[in-house]
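Practice problem: predict the structure.
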Amino acid sequence: MAGALGAMFANQQPGPPPPPPPGPPGGPGPAGLIPPPPGPRNPNNTLVDELEASFEACFASLVSQDYVNGTDQEEIRTGVDQCIQKFLDVARQTECFFLQKRLQLSIQKPEQVIKEDVSELRNELQRKEALIQKHLSKLRHWQQVLEDISVQHKKPAEMPQGPLAYLEQASANIPAPMKQT
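Answer:
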């Protein structure tokens, strides 16, 4: 996965990403994006490499033998917090990179963004239509169950009660004699 994503970032310039176009006057920073944290970056690493390394460092710090055998809980917590904070910083930089690319795409090809939005809306509409059909079929099923229950409860009430009830019911099912002409 890192290889495939690494190829996507192969043309990325080492160092901080290029600044986006300025945002509205008085707005927070350049178009509201988080600037990359200061500090040296390895020119051979891409953001994906750094993200992967910091992610692996998070897990390594949790399963490291030093932390398992360590007795100072505060030291362990500090080390884990530092690893997680580094991962979050690199994740923010990666998110910033993608947001800047998205912004560039929306400026250069606004019709592409509209096509994506329309596609997303169509997919959401299809998903909701399927959900409606699912609910309708459940509704029909439960309506039928309720109808069956109400019919079953009406039958005993319609039947006559008393010692001759069986005879009356049996005679009601006998067809009337046919008239002879």
